[in-house]
């Protein structure tokens, strides 16, 4: 439910050239019961309005009281969560909008997530353009289709890689491949204890995406503490100190359907690992 205030509003504009908030809004005509002040610049009441769990594509700029930008995002997608009860929030504002709407919201800085404002900036002004609304069911269907296609392509690429490189090693029960290059003579890693490895990480096409040698220091982690991807944990756990092995790790044991840094979704990763240290 919304309540009207008795203030008049100045004419203002957002999302002009470069999506810049051009005029400072000094008076607000509407306030929600939670205390969120708002003003619509463009409103399309007949367009699709999102509900909780839908995915929206938005552009957002947040300014402090001096007009300086403290947070700005290009076009990005997010899944809408329920607005927190009893306090103003960006979520509350987004749930009021429709596809194609532009609006400006004002709230206390303490309620804004990712707040880079200074301590003295008690109020923040958030301008939003809602570019698209994707219903949850449609988003899930598209994501599932992409997952199936990604998994099929990954399986094909992995099969071609194994055949091309004459790899006949049987996979572990989890589905990864451990190819021992040099048997270690030292102690085996102990779950809960620290290990140290040097490694190079590659994609199936041979492109390197990471290397501890390049950083000139080994990677140290506690075995079993989920500090690295599952496939690396499993492979190192089967080695002995001083040993070297190549680990071929399918995406379910790596980053799955997520883009993480240079690693794309559904990427099988190859690690050449040298176990140089184990804590006893």
Textual characterization of the structure:
The chain has 280 residues and is α+β, with helices and mostly antiparallel strands. It folds into two domains: 2-134, Chitinase A, domain 3; 163-278, Chitinase A, domain 3, CATH 3.10.50. Helices cover 17% and strands 32% of the residues. The chain is built from four helices and 13 strands. The strands form two sheets. A seven-stranded antiparallel β-sheet has the order 1-2-3-6-7-4-5, with helices on one face. Strands 8, 9, 10, 11, 12 and 13 form a six-stranded antiparallel β-sheet that branches. A hairpin with a 4-residue loop joins strand 9 (194-203) and strand 10. The protein is elongated, with a radius of gyration of 26 Å. Residues 1-26 have low confidence and may be disordered.
